[in-house]
Amino acid sequence: QVQLVESGGGLVQPGGSLRLSCAASGSIFSIIAMGWYRQAPGKQRELVAAITSGGSTNYADSVKGRFTISRDNANNTVYLQMNSLKPEDTAVYYCNVVFKRTVVIINTYWGQGTQVTVSS
């Protein structure tokens, strides 16, 4: 059983910062990619940032220059540093991990979500 434990969400003032973390554990052989998605009420879930095992990163245009995704490969953990937060960043943020359970079996798991609220 693979589990993703998310933390770091909360309430922050506009212009403030938060750091999200997502730790993967369980039957994981290796991680292919990890990413963060978000979904606001009434809105479609969207990719915020992703990072591959090779270190390549991808960001949504709306967060580019403000958010930074990083990995701790030894601990199967992904982070999302969010700076200069805006009210439109308010959403539930979900961690996603694409991984190999064995050398040939690829699975994907979602975290439970963590609420980020940017408001004065």
Give your account of this protein's structure.
It is a single chain. By secondary structure, the chain is mostly beta strands. The protein has strands spanning 3-7, 10-12, 18-25, 30-39, 46-52, 57-59, 67-72, 77-82, 91-100, 106-110, 114-118. The protein is built from no helices and eleven strands. Strands 2, 4, 5, 6, 9, 10 and 11 form a seven-stranded mixed β-sheet that branches. The protein has a four-stranded antiparallel β-sheet with strand order 1-3-8-7, with no helix packed on it. A hairpin with a 6-residue loop joins strand 4 and strand 5. The model has no long low-confidence stretch (mean pLDDT 95).
Q: Topology of this protein?
A:
Elements: E1 3-7, E2 10-12, E3 18-25, E4 30-39, E5 46-52, E6 57-59, E7 67-72, E8 77-82, E9 91-100, E10 106-110, E11 114-118
Parallel strand pairs: 2-11
Antiparallel strand pairs: 1-3, 3-8, 4-5, 4-9, 5-6, 7-8, 9-10, 9-11
Summarize the structure.
The chain has 120 residues and is mainly β. The chain has strands spanning 3-7, 10-12, 18-25, 30-39, 46-52, 57-59, 67-72, 77-82, 91-100, 106-110, 114-118.
Helices and strands, in N-to-C order? EEEEEEEEEEE
Overall mean pLDDT: 95
The chain-level structural class is mainly beta
Q: Over the alpha carbons, how many angstroms does the gyration radius reach? A: 14 Å
Number of strands: 11
Number of helices: 0
Helix content: under 10%
What descriptors fit this protein?
120 residues, mainly beta, 4-stranded antiparallel beta sheet, elongated, single chain, 7-stranded mixed beta sheet
